Amino acid sequence: MSARWVQQAEIIETKMIPTIEPTTTIATGMTAILLPTIFVVGIVARRKYRQHTMNQRIRQLERSWRLSPYQNTR
Q: What is the DSSP string of 52-72?
């Protein structure tokens, strides 16, 4: 009777031990690396885009100021 109880306890223990698959570990590691990387790249790209649009606006204002008839009225 005790041998059967030990056998059942071993079965329960083996079922309760979480098995970690190598692919799950790799996927977790890739996620840990890729998510912050994507976040940082998004921030850098947004800053570059905003700088680009700001430079375009400045150029447009400079052009319109040069073409303005009120330029030499000072």
A: HHHHHHHHHHHHHHHT-TTTT
For residue 54, with 0-12 CB atoms within 10 Å meaning exposed, 13-18 middle and 19 or more buried, which class applies? exposed
Claim: this prediction has a pTM higher than 0.70: no
**In degrees to the nearest 10, what's the CA dihedral of 50, 54, 55, 60?**
140
Query: How far apart, in whole angstroms, are the C-alpha atoms of residue 26 and residue 34?
Result: 12
- Backbone angle region of 73, left / alpha / beta, with phi > 0 → left and psi within -120 to 50 → alpha: alpha
Who's near 65: CB < 8 A, 6+ residues apart? Answer: 71
- pLDDT of amino acid 66: 81
